[in-house]
Here is the input.
Amino acid sequence: MAEMTAQKAQAEILYALLEYTAVFEKPILAAWRDSPNLISAVLSALDPFGFKLDGVECKTQTERLSEYAIVFRRSPPGATFTVGLGKLVVQAENVSWTDAERLITGMTAGINAILRIEQGEIHSQQISLGIHVQLKEKSRKEVTAPLLNPVALKILDEEVTFQGIILQHEKSLIVIDASLAYANGLFVRIIRDYPPDAKFEQMAEVLRRDEARLFDVLGLEEVK
Amino acid sequence: MNALLQAPGHLKQPLVHPPPRPPLAGIWAEKQPAGSKKPSRSSGVFDQQILWAAMWPERQSAHLQTFNREIPLDSPTRDLEAFYVIDGRPAVACFIKENRLRGILLEAREPLTAAFGKDAIKTLALVRDDEGFDTLFCLIMVTGDMQGAREALRSFDQHWWLGRSGQIAEKLNFDFDLV
Here is the structure.
């Protein structure tokens, strides 16, 4: 029997930014009042992951309290842990799935260190993944063409150079756009909201499935 | 029922005084964390930079910092990434640096587009000959017929490449690949 599997187009993930945001139930004012203790606790928790005193920045030169932040930067660069009064944000660049467990351990340690000081609670969580995917052979216009109903192409009379999509769900969202950074690249952002009790392991697993499904729907095969 | 009443918040036109940002609304207008400092305004359908700045002007500077973060400033492939697909990035980057090819590759963007069109994929890849010498090839993927592709390459050669190839022809070459 003839091979029925459609040929997958080769694609490389050139850049990925994972962002985790936890919004606190109430501003963690007590922790900020004792910021030396906060810094010490977070540094102790994150030290095994490469976060040192040299990478700590206090951003307080702003009139808005909501913009106050203590930023912990890892060395070598690639990850930041930012504590504000109302939320904390963890960003990690180019994390591979093999590093997921280590990242989860680090994030958990850092967050627990803050919540211990404040006796605080998390109100909501959000995971966002932004990736730039470069297509090696097929054009991005070709790859994304099946996502759009041809009727939409009639709206304007010029030739379409690229088509992207935005899909908004109840607690998630995906954007597929042309990459502004890489030739023949796609920019994809996946965002999911979670309740306060969701575990990192669950969120990571869902994200992993999202990424796999994205490649599958677009007919892409990842090359390293 | 009026469809506008059902439209999600993020599809509204940017307001002069934007409303408070709901958790997921408007995310499509947010940052693309990436490399080039001044991306083409028309590259992305959702043109994240412009809309992001329009809706949340107070966060524009932070956004631009994020934007400029990914490709190291000393990377020999900076500014090339938005135009060329790079096959075997570390080796190609090293070869471009060693042979100082960045300038001519930047210069080649306009004549390549003029000859082959802006939609053609241009791939940079190292090719090693039988004697072990490497050459950086810019392979332009051309759809259509052989005759048209040859014409495009001839035009590129005559109008631009032949006048510059003298000293670097052993290190850099341009060819097409019919797909």
Remarks:
- Chain B has six helices and four strands.
